[in-house]
Amino acid sequence: VAASFLVYLIPEDTTMKITVSDFGEHLDITKERALMESSSIDESFKKLMENDMNQDEYIRIAEVSSSQILTLIIELKDSGATQEWTESYVNYIGALKKLNEMITETIVVANLMDSDDNSNSINEIIDKIHQLKTESLDLTKKSDAARP
């Protein structure tokens, strides 16, 4: 009598692991991806403010961009940067967090645009958006300066 059976091996640890061998290149690629998201948001927000895009469409775009930025943050945190790259990575993670805060504030503006009596609030938030963008750029410069 012959017996036939299959054994399935299911790995215990199913978390995704990123292996980075060139931390400078990894950071450069991440910066390019973030720049694409930032440019897309800037362009879409400009269209929103010029009434060339409706609020719902903008919010969908912004939510996707925010999700992409969060993914980049996670990738950088999980990359296992060596000690010599840690300061550069930490600063760039900070820059991405500021960018994500900025995106969140643009969503707030989109939600407030339905009402005319919110123009003062919108102007205050736009000032905050510019401040967050400046802070993000400053952290990016710090990241560049901290490269080994």
TrEMBL record:
This is DUF5667 domain-containing protein. It comes from marine metagenome.
